[in-house]
Design a protein that fits this description.
mainly alpha, 100 residues, single chain, 58% helix, 6 helices
């Protein structure tokens, strides 16, 4: 979300961590993580965001970037204030990234 906000306000190129994986790669990794989305595991967090033998570097950032991108495409009139107040699960559902 922060990367989209920065792009919207300041402009510029997408940060490398947000674009480390393509849309399709992000979707594939999200599908792989689907059963773990409610995990509170610090180890899993470290692996997903900072890379491991199972997850490429910056996977979590790229997935998040793609979720927000899809959400914003489907909800172009939602303000940043409204987005910030939304439940992340609702953003994920409304992004429909897991359905496309």
């Amino acid at each position: 979300m922060a990367e989209h906000y920065r792009e919207n306000v300041v402009g510029g190129k997408t940060a490398p961590w947000a674009s480390a994986l393509s849309r399709n790669e992000s979707k594939a990794q999200l599908k792989k993580l689907k059963s773990k989305l409610n995990s509170k595991s610090h180890k899993l967090f470290q692996q997903v965001f900072f890379g491991s033998s199972e997850y490429p570097l910056w996977t979590g950032y790229s997935i998040g970037y793609q979720i927000i991108k899809e959400f914003m495409k489907r909800s172009p009139n939602v303000t940043w204030k409204e987005i910030m107040a939304l439940d992340p699960k609702k953003i994920l559902r409304q992004s429909k990234i897991m359905n496309t």
